[in-house]
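User: Here's a chain of 170 residues. Predict its fold as tokens.
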Amino acid sequence: MPSARRQPLSRRRLPRAGFTLLEVCVVLFIVAVIFVVAAVPATHLFNEEKLLAPVRQLQSCAKAARLRAMTSHQTCVILFGDNGYELALSDPVTAHPTVVRGYQLPPNVDLRCQAPADTEFHSVADLHWYFAPNGLCEPLKFLLQQGKSWVRFRVDPLTARVQDQESFID
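Assistant: Prediction complete.
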């Protein structure tokens, strides 16, 4: 029986494992291209979120005003200012509203309002939006603008929910 010659361990060639430098560079290039392509839509989504956050806050405040008016059998009011708004309870004795909570608009965001009798949107400064003890409110339309981007919506007078929302995000 012939004997098999064994090679010493130092002379044996082990199979090559790993990637070459060229393969690693190609993969890194592909990953970089994917990140660059994904950055544009991500920026657009971030700008959209900055403009939709005040819409959600206004809906939350309107729902809270409606609920408080119905549970306390007392008129609630949202007091608008130049850069935000506050939810307040009307006090029939003192005629001064008690502020419950407020919200500041993000910088460079302009909030405008259109009442049913108006033909165009106006500034909300010094606007009072009343919620009766039966839960009804005036059906207002709002316009939020930031630069060329805008969101337009109306608030349902029965449910205080945002409806008919339209937007353009630049």
